[in-house]
Design brief:
Elements (H helix, E strand, L loop, with lengths): L1 H7 L32 H10 L2 H5 L33
Length: 90
């Protein structure tokens, strides 16, 4: 229901994350197993998929279109802070 409200208000990017009718979803399907937590590309990809980072920041996390025309575009988080050079605390 929340998804349909967001779509009706124009606040949901249907191309990035289209809504799927409940009738066509395989409710018996198993979830993919999460990779072991760690500082790896696989775990990072899992996290960005899980929390839909690409919805605001774009498929490559380098800037996405604004969800609302009155809002700014999703900022580039791929290049912010010299990726690959981040510390564990970062």
């Amino acid at each position: 229901m929340l998804g349909r409200i967001l779509v009706a208000l124009g606040l949901f990017d249907m191309e990035a994350t289209p809504l799927i009718a409940a009738e066509v979803i395989d409710h018996t399907a198993l979830f993919a197993e999460a990779p072991a937590p760690g500082v790896t590309a696989g775990y990072g990809q899992y996290l960005t998929t899980l929390v839909l980072c690409t919805m605001c920041h774009g498929p490559d996390l380098k800037c996405g279109p604004p969800i609302d025309p009155a809002s700014p575009a999703g900022p580039n988080i791929a290049d912010y802070g010299a990726p690959g050079g981040w510390s564990e605390s970062d």
